Amino acid sequence: MSNALELRGISKSFPGVRANDNVDLEVRRGDIHAIVGENGAGKTTLMSILYGLTAPDSGEIVVDGRTVRFNSALDAIAAGLGMVHQAFKLFPTLTVAENVVFRNEPRTGIFLDRAEAAKRVRALGSEYGLMVDPGARIEDLPVGVLQRVEILKALYRDAQVLILDEPTAVLTPQERDNLFVTLRRLKDRGRTVIFITHKLGEVMAVSDRVTVLRGGRAVAHLDTASTSPTEVSRLMTGRNVDLDSRPPPSLLGEAVLSVTDLTVRDDDGLVRVDAVSLEVRSGEILGVAAVAGNGQHELIEAICGLRPADRGSIVVGGREVAAADMAVTRESGLAYIPEDRHRVGTAAGGEVWANLVMGFQRRKRFRRGRFMRRAEVEEHARRIIADYDVRVAGPAVTAATLSGGNLQKLVVGREMSHAAPLLVAEEPTRGVDVGAIEFLHRQLVEYRSQGGGILLLSAELWELLALSSRVVVMYEGRIVAELDPAETDEAELGFFMTGGSR
Ligand SMILES: Nc1ncnc2c1ncn2[C@@H]1O[C@H](COP(=O)(O)OP(=O)(O)OP(=O)(O)O)[C@@H](O)[C@H]1O
Ligand SMILES: [Mg+2]
Q1: pTM for the full predicted model
Q2: Looking at the 3D structure of the chain, how many domains does it have?
């Protein structure tokens, strides 16, 4: 089998870090090739080089047996590559079809031929199982659909090699299964797929080969059929990772969160949380399981003071906060790990130390009168960087240069470091590597053993079952079941999550 592309001796350094160190990579035509590695191992950097977004310090790229030199992504596209980024790059006010055909518009005279554009989008969509409405506006679509649009855009430009950077991180399990159907169809039609993931189950399920990066170097190239998740994670981290142990029970104290008869509406006035009551006590992790869009997000927003309650009560730290804003709920004893770390969690342009006090900048320990206690803040930042193994040169580095998983560890570390009585954690391990998942799980368990209460949302049902003391299921805005993780499983959770009842 011939190689669709090769990377030879690729190196790339940034100030203080060797992101890629003499990396060789051979990707066979028609393969689904997985790239794995710890946070900061250099995966995204390598793909940016391959796609012409970053210039390597040395090394060469060979496509179809010919050495190429990319000065921009346009060169990479012309050579038959396509990339789907983690943060989508679509025009929000244009339609799906307009985005897909952008720069290659079918025309009648000088005008865009809308009917033809829509027709081509539909045809590509049905060939690859990427169903979208060509006339829908981008800003109205959920992330899972946006990703399909990005893939269609690459295919419309006739990409022979498709690069996906953590495509499943933002998908529901159903959307992920659909994506895998698409990847297999691409393969069947002779196209090549390179995808980055932290989920080793996905590597085993869809890839033909897997390359492991560690500390910027390619340390293994494996045939998926002859390896195992254990071997891959050992190659990634240099140790054995255990994600299966269940935490011991802990002592329960008083309620740190009491929600009573809470009703919340969305921006369009629709009821999304419908008379929900729940309680989180000191010493416990309450898991919330729900298919995306069943009100769990609005519930969290109301608890955190990001969305007003329509009716009902929310008590945090003994204080009624149903009408309060985030600053007040934080003062009452709440810490919050948001699902979307780019939108609410961080300021990309700011330094790491500034990001590490965000939301807590008014605390006495960080202030002297109107001034920030710089030394105190930097010390705090250094401690979180060390404790949470954030791979970064130091507190003064700009947050935008952190790898995805390291930014996530930074947000989690910041929120957990204040030991608030209530921690609301949405997808706390999204985008972090297996070793870091194991570490963060231990931290979460430790947090509740020390007397914190945690409200945990995760699309990963195994994670909910591994961590929670109790799990409640939300369906269409209501709590429809409460289960003991020791006595239930993913199948039963799935049953209730999709509206099943006894
Ligand atoms: N523009 C940049 N300036 C400075 N350092 C950078 C820049 N881009 C990446 N780095 C650093 O290079 C290293 C590799 O980052 P990269 O984003 O490739 O990691 P990754 O393997 O994709 O990690 P993750 O799994 O967390 O996404 C990290 O230490 C990162 O901080
Ligand atoms: Mg990355």
Answers
A1: 0.86
A2: 3
